[in-house]
Specification:
The structure is a homodimer. With about 240 residues, the first copy, chain A, is α+β, with helices and mostly antiparallel strands. Chain A folds into 2 domains: about 90 residues, Alpha-Beta Plaits, CATH 3.30.70; about 140 residues, Pseudouridine synthase I, catalytic domain, C-terminal subdomain (Alpha-Beta Plaits). Chain A has 5 helices and 10 strands. In chain A, strands 1, 2, 3, 4, 5, 6, 7, 8, 9 and 10 form a 10-stranded mixed sheet that branches. In chain A, helix 1 crosses helix 2. The relative contact order of chain A is 0.19. Chains A and B meet through strand 4 of A and strand 4 of B.
């Protein structure tokens, strides 16, 4: 039987979602706990997306196969009892056999948080990019509006991104300020490697005056990663939700 | 010359505000940095209040004496450059020679945060008490209203609290819910040891039905710590502001 897990995590101390040899990953931590619950039967989970080292999630989704002898709340409570406090299973559901956390996803919402006060904020520091510059949120939103829609986001992906197609549909890209905290929410059907972090870096360069909104539109049209902005650091990013 | 610092910190990894021999304290960390800035001249800072191990602050206040040869922004930037990311100096001011961070304080605001969802929230976990019970916020507010005003808070202090007078004036005690997050804000002229955490524990026992609001009033009148509720854990507590 196939199960869907919704997972929240603080990515600070992980090498990322994906199992890797160089340190603890969220995927491996959950797989090891599931394997233990399955009496040693190696269990693989497949996530909706691979978050980078240091990136967080409020609603990552993963699926796995189980024998059907453990109830849903047994999975949720059992996993939460053994997982570190930095990971929590916030939902468990039975799904159809053809459900795939990655390929069944219709879209995702990411949120990027920027702390704009002159000094860092220790109680937020794990979850924000501390940017010591004034940024103009209205100007960032104007640039963001050029990116909404179906476009080739080739200029906004990591140089080692291996996706064959680079056209994605951004359905929402909203920049908002609440006192010293600026948040950028991005919804799209799918994302390229580092796409949100490069979008954020580019929008911020626009916000502090290094670029114009028209320039951001030209970067998109040009398709050249080298013309886009910096890659914003991972800790400001959280995968909020996956839609199916 | 006398300086006033406003300090934010994530208390998770500290033994508390006060310098102690059993581990790193916020006070000692700042004092060591100031001593270094003062060319090795031992510098003592005095805080407005001693937060317990694991308790946070958005606006702790401390004062110290300096020779007057370092500008205010030099203190702020210099300290922030060497302090760990878990501590930040968010303000520095010159004050009169008779300013005392502790004795000049007219009041303080503390905020206690409670996470009431069935599963823990990894991205909030360092800053909340995860209470796996339904709590009735209206009932807690009704109990809280009995505690507002000038009262003897003898029942709401740690058994090893050494204060001679136990009468305090609580000017505001507000319980609020925002989806799964319940916050309790307490303003008073001064606080006894563990007073906020015992108030919170007692209000929560009221919220989950173990006590009535009238019972909380009787606990206050009785003055017996053993009749009050549990001491809520430290990580949900933050010193928000000190008023002068």
């Amino acid at each position: 039987m196939r199960y869907k897990l919704t997972v929240e995590y603080d990515g600070t101390d992980f090498v990322g979602w994906q199992r890797q040899s160089n340190g603890p990953s969220v995927q491996a931590t959950i797989e090891d706990a599931l394997t233990e619950m399955h009496g040693g039967l190696a269990t693989i989970i497949r996530g909706a997306g691979r978050t980078d080292a240091g990136v967080h999630a409020l609603g990552q989704v993963a699926h796995f196969e189980g024998a059907g002898n453990i109830p849903l709340h047994g999975y949720q409570r059992g996993l939460n009892a053994v997982l570190p406090r930095s990971i929590a299973i916030v939902g468990a559901e039975l799904v159809a056999d053809d459900f795939d956390a990655r390929f069944s996803a219709r879209g995702k919402l990411y949120r990027y948080s920027i702390w704009t006060a002159p000094t860092r904020a220790p109680m937020r520091d794990r979850y924000v990019w501390h940017l010591r510059r004034e940024i103009d949120v209205a100007r960032m939103q104007e640039a963001a509006n050029h990116l909404v829609g179906r476009h080739d986001f080739c200029a906004f992906r990591a140089s080692d991104c291996e996706r064959k197609t680079t056209t994605r549909t951004v359905t929402r890209l909203a920049v908002a300020r609440s006192s010293d905290l600026v948040t950028i929410e991005v919804e799209a059907d799918a994302f390229l490697k580092n796409m949100v972090r490069i979008l954020v870096g580019t929008l911020c360069e626009c916000g502090w005056g290094k670029r114009t909104p028209a320039d951001v539109q030209q970067v998109l049209a040009g398709g050249d990663r080298r013309r886009a902005g910096i890659t914003a650091p991972p800790q400001g990013l959280a995968l909020v939700r996956v839609d199916y």
